[in-house]
Amino acid sequence: MSSVTSAPTVKLLNPFVPKAYDLRLHVDLADWSYRGEETVVLRRVEGTQASRTVRLHYSPTMAIHEVVGATILSRDEDAGTLQLCLDGELGDTHTVAFNYSNGIREDMRGFYRACFKTSDGVEHRMAATHFEPTSARCLYICQDEPAARADFTLHVSLPRCMESYTVLSNGALCAREQKGDTVTHEFETVPAIPPYLTSCFVGELEHLGTTACGIPVKVYTALGRSQEAAFALKTTAFALEHFEKFFGCKYPLSKLDVVAVPDFPIGGMENWGCIACVESILADERTSSVSALKRVAELLCHEVSHNWFGNLVAVSWWEG
């Protein structure tokens, strides 16, 4: 669990809870900003008292420009919650859409800046996410609780000048379209995922890849460092095959990525399908000490194991 401090939180008791998120981000690393166009499908909770009032988590730094399907009644900046009144006739599901903008953070939580320098001394901009335990709300409006699982679909648009950049998320990339001055990356929907396990990475990255359990496994690094990822890749593939046999349950997603992030607040994070780790996993098997390789193997095996114990089966709340 993350040691990074997050906003105070209390459990939300809603008559409608998120069933699916469709999130469209327009990211510009040149000015460290993004716009979000988000659609949330809510489902009625059986046995709850009929009510139009719903609370969702958000970041007070967001500028919310438009809400469709609901009206904002109040904002609690300390708790990071919006109180909404759902519009129109209510059925078993209700759709709310948000249009907002925000900055890319500097404090290594939520959607944050992670720069790196290549061997020629040139600095390259990158954006990364770290959400555990309660920082998914820093990127998008959600019910930011571990039990609040919902389908998650992500689209990321970049300026055409960033068309060579890699974009990663939990689902596999299923389409990439260039239209005018924009390049849009569309990802497969990941089913029933809690917000803290969702992710998004944008940057000039390269990778090494292999196949394990019939799916592509890749380790992504900053430019110029992919050849240092061989041991991490071999370990990740081994761990995936081992835990699939150990748990007797197939890995449920269509790919597994590991991202070596230049600035990351903890050792690793088990984002489903898109694990994030510190760059120290880039250890050369030929020159690194046995103890250094052991630390890398322990970290990667720990994070891969969470794909079953922690992702498929997870806690319902952060406290006992």
From TrEMBL:
What region holds the Peptidase M1 membrane alanine aminopeptidase domain? 231-319
Note the InterPro entries from the entry: Aminopeptidase_N-like_N, Aminopeptidase_N-like_N_sf, M1_APN-typ, Peptidase_M1, Peptidase_M1_aminopeptidases, Peptidase_M1_dom, Peptidase_M4/M1_CTD_sf
Top enzyme class, one word, equals hydrolase
Quote the EC number: 3.4.-.-
Cofactor(s) recorded for this entry are:
Zn(2+)
> Record's family?
Belongs to the peptidase M1 family.
* KW Zinc (keyword) present: yes
Choose any GO biological process term that the UniProt entry carries and state it: peptide catabolic process
Q: Which residues form the active site?
A: 303 (proton acceptor)
Task: Could you list this entry's UniProt keywords, alphabetically sorted.
Answer: Aminopeptidase, Hydrolase, Metal-binding, Metalloprotease, Protease, Zinc
> What's the source species' lineage?
Eukaryota, Discoba, Euglenozoa, Kinetoplastea, Metakinetoplastina
- Listed name of the protein: Putative aminopeptidase
- The Aminopeptidase N-like N-terminal domain is annotated at 17-197
Query: Cofactor: bound how, per the entry note?
Result: Binds 1 zinc ion per subunit.
State the CDD domains in the record: M1_APN-Q_like
Q: Which organism is it from?
A: Trypanosoma vivax (strain Y486)
* Sample GO molecular function, one term: peptide binding
Annotated binding of Zn(2+), by residue:
302, 306
- Where on the tree of life does the source sit, at the highest rank? Eukaryota
